[in-house]
Amino acid sequence: MVARNIQKKIASEPNYQLSLLPSQVDTIADIVRRDCYIGDFSIDIVKAANKYDCIIQEVAFNGEDRDVSGMVYFDPKDTKFHIDINANDTEPRKRFAVAHELSHVLLHGDKLKSVTSNAIVDYDRSIAYFKKHDDIIKEIHANMLASAILLPRAQFETAYESTKGSVDGIADLFNVSKHAAFIRMETLNKFD
Ligand SMILES: [Zn+2]
User: Fold this and answer.
1) Is 66 exposed, middle or buried (0-12, 13-18, 19+ CB in 10 A)?
2) Contacts of 119 (CB under 8 A, 6+ apart)
3) Class of 2-187 per CATH?
4) How far is the CA of 83 from the centre of ligand 1 (A)?
């Protein structure tokens, strides 16, 4: 898997761990999730995003863009972040897309705001599309935080035990994509 190899390569670089620690990710995720739980495992990710001035819209991406999962831009007119997600995706994938774009806002929001027009500042396909080192790091960080928001640490550990570490089982429990469950397992070193 190309994306996995890129993530592994970056993760082994000396500065990587310093830039965003898993414990820091958990701290941010705990704050984001406050007042947003639905039941024991799942959270209302749209409600969480709304707390941070993000407006979510489902868009029918077509043609070359049909595999785009989501994008985010800052509109100086209404001073809101606008997150567009792919209307054709499944519910779990949409949830991850919202969490991923929200994570860009939280981690890189100042940079997003410095763009004067409504320029698209994140446009997500597979991580394999990203070429610049800084962009890849941003993607990895957004993915780490997104999966931490959707899969809280304590509940994740409970689910990990009860499903015997099944990616599919964990994804079902939290109503997230397998991709999100996989990243969370990787961040918490469950594959080591
Ligand atoms: Zn991204």
Assistant:
1) exposed
2) 73
3) mainly alpha
4) 11
Helices and strands, number each (H, E), in the chain: 9, 6
pTM of the model: 0.84
- Dist. CA 189 → ligand 1 center (Å): 22
Q: Are 19 and 181 in contact (CB under 8 A)?
A: no
3-state secondary structure of 12: coil
- What region, left, alpha or beta, does residue 132 occupy, with left being phi > 0 and alpha being psi -120 to 50 degrees? beta
**DSSP readout, 119-170?**
---EEES-GGG--SHHHHHHHHHHHHHHHHHHS-HHHHHHHHHHTTT-HHHH
Q: In this structure, what DSSP letter does residue 69 have?
A: -
Please give the single-letter amino acid code of residue 55: I
Compute and round to an integer the Cα radius of gyration of the chain: 16
Condensed to tens digits (0 to 9), the pLDDT of residues 43-83 reads 899 999 999 999 999 999 888 878 888 999 888 889 899 99
Domain ranges in the chain? 2-187
**Which residues have C-beta under 5 Å from ligand 1, the single-atom ion?**
122, 124, 139, 142
